[in-house]
Amino acid sequence: MARHVVLLRGINIGSRNRISMPKLREALEDAGFKDVRTHLQSGNVVVGSTAKPESVARKFEKLVKERFGLEIPVVVRTRAELARIVKRNPLGKVATDPKRYQVSFLSSNLSAEVVGELEEAAAPEERVEVIGREVYAWHPKTIARSKLWNRLAGKGLGVTATSRNWATVEALLELAERERT
């Protein structure tokens, strides 16, 4: 059974799109997912399933809509895919603060035009690397006022995207690799 890392976009931020993690785990177990684990309160879930990642994403989106009344986009990576993402770490030599180093997980590849727009939006001290369905972004001064971050966090990419800081990415990989005892 494959381990899948499921990233829900934009839940439990402020007072909108609230989902209790214990209730989400219960709903997922009821839906047949195995070894369901959550990390933090911001929509990070690791599950076991024999389904392909695209099917897992569709099932999650449907379940969240039916059980919680929310239309939440979902991006899924297998444990092996997440391991490659962490190993790749193209900005590891410059990104010294894991809270300011973000990975945006995309539902599909970005167009060359959008990649160019992201590179233009980066401040001189920022770094951005687009590799496949991930965008690695280093924001050494600020994330909140970063034009690059605003582009990544918005909906103008043309694909579903959700971001996690590097500390969370590493924690999710560890959670996906850990066997339940």
Question: Could you give the topology of this structure?
Answer:
Elements: E1 2-8, H1 21-30, E2 34-39, E3 44-49, H2 53-68, E4 74-78, H3 79-88, E5 101-106, H4 112-121, E6 127-131, E7 134-138, H5 147-153, E8 161-165, H6 166-177
Antiparallel strand pairs: 1-3, 1-4, 2-3, 5-7, 5-8, 6-7
Helix pairs in contact: 3-6, 4-5
Shape field: globular
- The helix/strand order is EHEEHEHEHEEHEH
Strand content: 15-25%
Radius of gyration from CA coordinates: 16 Å
State the CATH architecture of the largest domain.
Answer: 2-Layer Sandwich
Please give the number of β-strands: 8
Report helical residue fraction: 25-40%
Distance between the termini: 16 Å
Major pleated sheet: 4 strands, antiparallel
CATH fold-type name of the largest domain:
Alpha-Beta Plaits
- What is the name of the CATH class of the largest domain? Alpha Beta
Q: What is the residue-averaged pLDDT?
A: 94
Low-confidence stretches: none
Strand order of the largest sheet: 2-3-1-4
Derived from helix and strand composition plus strand pairing, the structural class reads alpha+beta
Oligomeric category: single chain
| Tally of separate helices | 6
Total separate domains: 2
Structure description:
With 181 residues, the chain is an alpha+beta fold. It has two domains: 2-81, SP0830-like domains (Alpha-Beta Plaits, 2-Layer Sandwich), CATH 3.30.70; 82-173, Alpha-Beta Plaits. The protein is built from six helices and eight strands; from the N terminus they run E-H-E-E-H-E-H-E-H-E-E-H-E-H. Helix 3 crosses helix 6 and helix 4 packs antiparallel against helix 5. The radius of gyration is 16 Å and the shape is globular.
